[in-house]
Each structure stands twice: as structure tokens, then as C-alpha cells.
């Protein structure tokens, strides 16, 4: 990465992990994400120090708390942390350095997330909701057979006295 520039994709706010982070952290979280990546761009191979001191430095520079920086790095699937070597990087940074994200995900042991477009995400959500509806509990009244006369009579429990007189 010798150009001195970082490539910022126009669809950055459409990527699922970024959407999750942006919904939770807002514009300040997005700014912190970019700030962290700017730090990583100055590190060898895009890997920065994952130490308490470095987290504090990033927090001070971003006018945030150290816990905010650590949460952003660990919670949204945007970064890879190598605990053994006490270092971290982002998928975006590795793309800047020409690394393939899928290979990096496998080698670092971080579970890969399947990326979908916004329309695909909505379709998956609808399918999931439909599946949940199908597996919903069945009411006892729904499992009873109708009387000999055909249609089953609907019980009105609001008027319990009339129900007992039958």
C-alpha cells in the first residue's frame, strides 16, 4: 500500500457488518472505524498493536473511551484480533494491502460471515419469520374435531354463565 490513499467503497454503508455497527454506534462509531483504519494503514502489513496502551491512544484520538474502541474492534465482525501476537487488523485494511478476505478469515480462525445485498437480507428475514410462524404453537381448539353437525361452535368465554348452561 504505497499510494498514500485508502479506497473507500461507495457501498460502505450497505455492507451487513457496517450496517450493524452503524445502527448501534451511529456516525461517531463510523468515524472511529475510519480512524482505527487510518492507524492500521501506518502499521506494517496493516496489523496494529492490540494492547491496552494502543487502545487508550486510539480512544483519546477519537474522543471516546477505551471500552468503545475495544467494543468496535470485537463486536461487529469488522476486525480480526490475533490474541497470541497481541495484534489486530480489519478486513478493509487487508483488502487495501491486497489480501483476500476469505483466506484471512480462515487462517485467523474468525468465523466467516456470508455477505448478502440488502434485498437478500430482507428475503432471508422474511423466510425466517415464515419458518417461525409455521413452527408456532397449535391451539387446543384447532386440534379438536368438528361436531357431527358439521361446523364446530365457537366458544365465547366472555359470557361464562351461558357457557355453563349448555
What features would you describe in this structure?
The chain is mainly α and 166 residues long. It has a domain at 12-115: Orthogonal Bundle (Arc Repressor Mutant, subunit A). The protein is 52% helix and 6% strand. It is built from eight helices and three strands; from the N terminus they run αβααββααααα. The chain has helices spanning 16-41, 52-61, 66-75, 91-96, 101-108, 118-134, 140-143, 160-165; strands at residues 48-49, 79-82, 87-90. The chain has a three-stranded antiparallel sheet with strand order 1-3-2. α1 packs across α3 (66-75) and α2 (52-61) packs across α3. The chain starts with 15 loop residues before the first helix and ends with a helix. The model is unreliable at 102-116 (pLDDT under 50).
SSE map:
Elements: H1 16-41, E1 48-49, H2 52-61, H3 66-75, E2 79-82, E3 87-90, H4 91-96, H5 101-108, H6 118-134, H7 140-143, H8 160-165
Antiparallel strand pairs: 1-3, 2-3
- Total of DSSP H or I helical runs spanning 4+ residues: 8
Q: Which runs of at least 5 residues are low in confidence (pLDDT < 50)? A: 102-116
Radius of gyration, taken over Cα atoms and rounded to an integer in Å: 27 Å
> From the helix content, strand content and strand pairing, which structural class follows?
mainly alpha
Main sheet: strands, sense, barrel: 3 strands, antiparallel
In total, the number of strands is 3
**Strands in their spatial order, largest beta sheet:** 1-3-2
End-to-end Cα distance, whole Å, is: 84 Å
Q: Report mean pLDDT, rounded to a whole number.
A: 75
What top-tier CATH class of the domain at 12-115 fits best?
Answer: Mainly Alpha
Strand content: 5-15%
Query: How does CATH name the architecture of the domain at 12-115?
Result: Orthogonal Bundle
| Oligomer status | single chain
The shape is elongated
CATH topology label of the domain at 12-115? Arc Repressor Mutant, subunit A
The ordered H/E elements are HEHHEEHHHHH
Helix content: 40-55%
Amino acid at each position: 500500500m504505497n499510494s498514500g490513499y485508502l479506497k473507500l467503497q461507495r457501498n460502505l454503508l450497505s455492507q451487513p457488518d457496517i450496517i450493524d455497527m452503524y445502527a448501534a454506534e451511529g456516525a461517531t462509531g463510523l468515524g472511529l472505524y475510519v480512524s482505527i483504519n487510518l492507524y492500521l494503514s501506518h502499521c506494517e502489513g496493516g496489523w496494529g498493536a492490540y494492547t491496552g496502551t494502543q487502545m487508550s491512544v486510539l480512544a483519546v484520538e477519537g474522543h471516546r473511551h477505551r471500552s468503545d474502541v475495544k467494543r468496535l474492534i470485537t463486536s461487529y465482525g469488522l476486525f480480526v484480533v490475533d490474541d497470541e501476537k497481541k495484534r489486530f487488523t480489519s478486513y478493509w485494511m487487508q483488502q487495501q494491502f491486497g489480501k483476500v478476505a476469505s483466506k484471512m478469515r480462515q487462517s485467523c480462525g474468525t468465523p466467516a460471515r456470508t455477505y448478502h445485498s440488502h434485498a437478500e437480507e430482507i428475503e432471508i428475514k422474511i423466510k425466517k419469520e415464515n419458518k417461525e410462524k409455521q413452527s408456532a404453537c397449535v391451539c387446543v381448539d384447532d386440534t379438536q374435531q368438528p361436531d357431527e353437525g358439521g361446523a364446530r361452535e365457537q366458544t365465547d368465554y366472555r359470557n361464562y354463565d351461558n357457557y355453563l348452561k349448555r
